[in-house]
Task: structure prediction
Amino acid sequence: MQRSELAVGAAMPDPPFELMLGGKPVGFDIELTQLIAARLGRTWRLVRYDGSDFNGIFAGLESGSYDCVASGTTITPERRRLADFCDPYVVSGQSLVVDAGRHPDVRSIANLGGLTIGVQQGNTSQPVADRLVAEGKAARVKVYAYGEIERALADLTTGGCDAFMKLAPVTAWLVRDRPRLKVVETGITREVLGMCVRCGDHALRGAINESQRSLLEDGTLPRLVTKWLGLGAAWRPQDSLRG
Result:
């Protein structure tokens, strides 16, 4: 039987992928999944994931809390074991944020010796930061619960951490109203992002892929990328569906 709704799991806030403005959810993933739901003839419903570890979001697929996850999600081998990913829709990478007043000499991850890197639990920045510490290129990693991004940014100024790592469109968005903070490096990694469904849900995966392809061909998907994700990031929409 055809489902009447498309329930979308997302961890919020994670601008510009998903955020609340004027009491309404908006953002790249919000707008994209609303368009996909319309093409599938389903009503759209957002299900907010509030777990402290982002990787816990995939359990909601198996339990049936939502039909798909669209939350600025990087496709990784580990996550492929937890969910079936649709065609990727965009390419991004990790970036580095500092309080330029506190650390004027930090211009890249090469300048993090003796410093603490902040990351969100379960984010793909975490293994990158862990590797820098293991290689002696940073002092330690401070892990914040996924919903504590505001606290992490404040800590850059108060001294709770020295640098914060996150995907480039997110940091570009978050520093706009924080003049003390500066994105000093982008392109630290190359990460392919996409939606996912529960393992074995081939019908929904195929339907989402078909909808994405049509949105790419009519120019809608590139426009959404430019509208929401082009804030100071090295995005390459033309590569997004080639993985």
Summary: DSSP finds eight helices and 14 strands in the chain. The CA atoms of residues 108 and 185 lie 5 Å apart.
